C-alpha cells in the first residue's frame, strides 16, 4: 500500500476589502512510496472548502513521480485534476499537467536547502457551457531546514523549515473564474518524528495573490495553519530522495 500524507489546514483569509474575511478548510491525503534508489511515487488527494460569498468546495487528485538524477538533482512530473462545485454558478474542473526540476544542497550535517522549479499548464472547463480557458504558470520554491534529530529516532522534534514560493501566470483568461497573475507563499514549519520513519509537520503560512493591473481590492492575503502527517513505505533508507524536502 502507498503511504498517506494526511494534511488538515484551516485558513482565515482577510480580503483587502474593509473588514471582509473568508474561512478556508483543507483536508488532504498524500501517498508516498520509495521505490529502489532513484524513484518515489506520490500524490495528493484532498478536499478544499471556502465559506465566503459564492461558497465553493473543491475536490482534487494529483499523482506524481520523482526521479533522482544524482545526489543533488531530481526530475518531477505529474498530472492534477481539480473539480470545483459552486453554490450559485456552474461547476468547473481543471486538468493540470506539470514538469519540474529540483536541487538539494547540504551545507552541514544539519542544514539543508532545497530549490524546486516547476511549470504547469492549467486547462479550465465549465460543466454548464462550452466555456474553457487555459494559462501557463511558473513556480519557484526555496526551502531551508535545520535538523534537530534524525527521523529514525521516534517521538523527537525532527527539524524546522522555512520556505518561500513565488508563482507567475501567463495568458490568463478570466472567463471562468478569477485567476491571479502573481502569488507568493511564505511558510514556517516544525516537524516531529513518529515510529518507523513517519513524521508530523506543523506549518504556519502566509499567502498573497494579486491580479495584474487590477485595483487593490482584488488582491487576497491568506494566513493558515496546516498539520501534515507523513508515513512512508518502501526502502526509504536506500533512496537518494529521502532527505530532500521537495514536496509537490
Can you offer a commentary on this structure?
The protein has strands spanning about 5-15, 20-30, 30-35, 40-50, 55-70, 75-85, 90-105, 110-125, 130-145, 155-170, 180-195, 200-210, 220-230, 235. Helices cover about 0% and strands about 65% of the residues. Residues about 1-20 and about 215-220 have low confidence and may be disordered. A hairpin with a 5-residue loop joins β11 (about 180-195) and β12. The protein has one domain (about 5-240): Porin (Beta Barrel). Strands 1-2-4-5-6-7-8-9-10-11-12-13 form a 12-stranded antiparallel barrel. The two termini are about 20 Å apart. By secondary structure, it is mostly beta strands. It is globular. It has no helices and 14 strands.
Major sheet = 12 strands, antiparallel, barrel
Sheet/helix structural class:
mainly beta
Strand content: over 45%
- Number of helices, counting only DSSP H or I runs of 4 residues or more: 0
CATH class: Mainly Beta
Distance between the termini: 20 Å
Taken in chain order, the helices and strands follow as: EEEEEEEEEEEEEE
The CATH architecture can be given as Beta Barrel
Query: What are the low-pLDDT stretches, counting only 5+ consecutive residues below 50?
Result: 1-21, 213-218
Helical percentage: under 10%
Number of strands: 14
CATH homologous superfamily identity: monomeric porin ompg
The geometry reads as globular
Amino acid at each position: 500500500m502507498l503511504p498517506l500524507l494526511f494534511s488538515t489546514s484551516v485558513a482565515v483569509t482577510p480580503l483587502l476589502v474593509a473588514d471582509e474575511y473568508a474561512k478556508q478548510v483543507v483536508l488532504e491525503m498524500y501517498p508516498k512510496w520509495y521505490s529502489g534508489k532513484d524513484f518515489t511515487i506520490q500524490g495528493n488527494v484532498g478536499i478544499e472548502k471556502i465559506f465566503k460569498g459564492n461558497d465553493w468546495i473543491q475536490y482534487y487528485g494529483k499523482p506524481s513521480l520523482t526521479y533522482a538524477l544524482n545526489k543533488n538533482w531530481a526530475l518531477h512530473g505529474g498530472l492534477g485534476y481539480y473539480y470545483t462545485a459552486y453554490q450559485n454558478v456552474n461547476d468547473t474542473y481543471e486538468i493540470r499537467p506539470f514538469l519540474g526540476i529540483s536541487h538539494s544542497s547540504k551545507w552541514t550535517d544539519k542544514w539543508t536547502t532545497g530549490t524546486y522549479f516547476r511549470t504547469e499548464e492549467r486547462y479550465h472547463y465549465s460543466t454548464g457551457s462550452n466555456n474553457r480557458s487555459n494559462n501557463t504558470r511558473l513556480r519557484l520554491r526555496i526551502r531551508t531546514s535545520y535538523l534537530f534529530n534524525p527521523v529514525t529516532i521516534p517521538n523527537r522534534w525532527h527539524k524546522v523549515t522555512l520556505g518561500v514560493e513565488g508563482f507567475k501566470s501567463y495568458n490568463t483568461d478570466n472567463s471562468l473564474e478569477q485567476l491571479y497573475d502573481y502569488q507568493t507563499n511564505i511558510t514556517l514549519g516544525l516537524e516531529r518524528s513518529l515510529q518507523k520513519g513517519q513524521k508530523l509537520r506543523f506549518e504556519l503560512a502566509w499567502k498573497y495573490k494579486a491580479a495584474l493591473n487590477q485595483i487593490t481590492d482584488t488582491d487576497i492575503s491568506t494566513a493558515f495553519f496546516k498539520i501534515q502527517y507523513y508515513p512512508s513505505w518502501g526502502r526509504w533508507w536506500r533512496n537518494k530522495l529521502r532527505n530532500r524536502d521537495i514536496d509537490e
